[in-house]
Amino acid sequence: MAPRNDARERKGAAHDLRWARDVRDSVRCGGVLLALLLLLDWGTGRFTYWRCTLWLALALLLFLVLYPARVSAGDGWLASRRLLREHRVCTDQLVSVRYLEGMSERLVLRDSAGGRVEIDPEVLLRNPQLWFLVDAGAQKSAGGGTLLCGATALHRLSRRIDRETAHAVFKASGLE
Predict the structure, then answer these.
(1) Mean pLDDT across the stretch 130-134?
(2) Residue 54 covered by a domain
(3) What per-residue confidence (pLDDT) applies to 7?
(4) Overall domain count for the chain
(5) Are residues 122 and 144 in the same domain?
(6) Are 59 and 85 within one domain?
(7) Is 53 domain-assigned?
(8) Is the pLDDT of residue 41 over 60?
(9) Residue 81 β-bridge partners
(10) Residue 89's closest CA among 134, 123, 155?
């Protein structure tokens, strides 16, 4: 994978605009669970420090499970950062793109250097600037012949994003 160039990444980079809200929601869920468990213990008279520690650990575990990945993209790259690790691909050197359906839809991108990023397609749907940068890089990959597998998945996702965008425009203009 290409070395990081922080000055290049800042210029023209796009981020998930809803990430901070999603983090606050995960904190709230953990906090509400902790408050409910502590209230339940206090109300039944079984409140002890070891139970409080157990409930705190459970609330922290819920927060960690719900913590969203921070997705960002720039000219030729896409990154997904969790709490401990960042995964990055060069979008202009993509080898495969897979669209995994099921309970939780996922878009898995792999590049020629072995980089792998797995993101929720909703992030691209909610952030047109991210989608524009990813799509531009994927078009370069397809044009350069490196994209061996996944052009169909990208076209399907592109149609879905176009359909959702048109629906939002019609709804906002009152033409729905």
Answers:
(1) 92
(2) yes
(3) 44
(4) 2
(5) yes
(6) no
(7) yes
(8) yes
(9) 70, 86
(10) 134
